[in-house]
Design a protein that fits this description.
This protein is mainly beta. It has 2 domains: 2-51, FAH (SH3 type barrels, Roll), CATH 2.30.30.370; 61-256, Fumarylacetoacetase-like, C-terminal domain (Fumarylacetoacetate hydrolase, domain 2, Alpha-Beta Complex), CATH 3.90.850.10. It has helices at 69-74, 131-134, 147-152, 157-161, 204-212, and strands at residues 2-8, 11-18, 26-31, 39-46, 51-53, 61-64, 85-88, 93-94, 99-102, 109-111, 113-119, 135-142, 145-146, 166-173, 182-187, 190-196, 222-224, 232-234, 239-244, 248-256. Strands 1, 2, 3, 4, 5, 6, 7, 8, 11, 12, 14 and 17 form a 12-stranded mixed β-sheet that branches. Strand 1 (2-8) and strand 2 (11-18) form a beta hairpin. It starts with a strand and ends with a strand. Magnesium ion is lined by residues 63, 65, 112, 114, 143, 224, 226-227. Pfam families: FAA_hydrolase, Rv2993c-like_N.
Length: 258
């Protein structure tokens, strides 16, 4: 099931998406929130009549770095032998169609297409064989990075945590085997990144075992799983699109921060 979060007439709700043609998609409004038991209301609205929002409002976004060997090498980094994570704050999250605001303190902002895992239930110290039980679904993410700031500051709070640096969407796909999906990114229609999730050094299971060893994960929390090779600069005016097989396309435009 594809579950979107949206606003209509000033109200925010979740809905299950029906249909396949992009311009004919319909939302069946969900009663309550999709993490608990929920029912479809049967009240339907066309997607074209609503504004899609970030599909979840995470308490935290935990992002893993250098999880594709070719990407680690393209930036001159060693391939790490253990997973390592950093945070992106909840205020960095934006939705499909929202604007990425180019920050004033950077001159080199990069795109990073990533598979995002959405957590469905509160959990800690998740054993490998239970990981599938804590996953709600998957969405597309763009780990927008001020690369110049990342190079000069030891912690990445500013480089990877500025407002609008975590586009998520367009919805969460709950029925998906995410172990071998095509992940690609275009800028103004030109392909920049292309990889497969099977190229991850540490699997989704590894990453969730690793982070849940340290902290409690909450429903709606998001885990970013690393980016394939081909990262590069974004400029004001660019349109950047992340497409993941079986999920959909997340498109955002880059604007100057006002
Ligand atoms: Mg990244």
């Amino acid at each position: 099931m594809r579950i979107a979060r949206f606003s209509i007439d000033g109200n925010v709700a979740f809905g299950a998406i029906e249909g396949d043609k992009q311009d004919e998609l319909v939302l069946d409004i969900i009663k309550g929130i999709p993490f608990a038991d929920f029912e479809l209301s049967g009240t339907k609205v066309p997607v074209s009549k609503v504004r899609l929002l970030p599909p979840v409002l995470p308490n935290k976004v935990v992002a893993f770095g250098r999880n594709y060997a070719e990407h680690a090498r393209e930036l001159g980094n060693e391939v790490p032998d253990a997973p390592f994570a950093f945070f992106k704050p909840s205020t960095s999250v934006i939705g499909p169609g929202d604007e990425i605001q180019y920050p004033s303190f950077s001159e080199e902002v990069h795109h990073e297409a990533e598979l995002a895992v959405v957590i469905g239930r509160m959990c800690r110290e998740v054993p490998r064989e239970r990981v599938k039980d804590v996953i709600f679904g998957y969405t597309c993410a763009n780990d927008i990075t001020a690369r110049d700031v990342q190079k000069r500051e030891k912690q990445w709070a500013r480089a990877k945590g500025f407002d609008s640096s975590c586009p998520l969407g367009p919805w969460v796909e709950t029925d998906l085997d995410a172990s071998d999906l095509t992940i690609q990114l275009t800028v103004n229609g030109q392909q920049r990144q292309l990889g497969r999730t099977s190229e991850m050094i540490h699997s989704i299971e590894d990453l969730i075992v690793n982070i849940s060893e340290a902290m409690t994960l909450l429903p709606g929390d998001v885990i970013l799983t690393g980016t394939p090779a081909g990262v590069g600069p974004l400029n004001v005016g660019d349109e950047v699109a992340v497409t993941i097989e079986g999920i959909g396309t997340l498109t955002n435009k880059v604007v100057k921060r006002g």
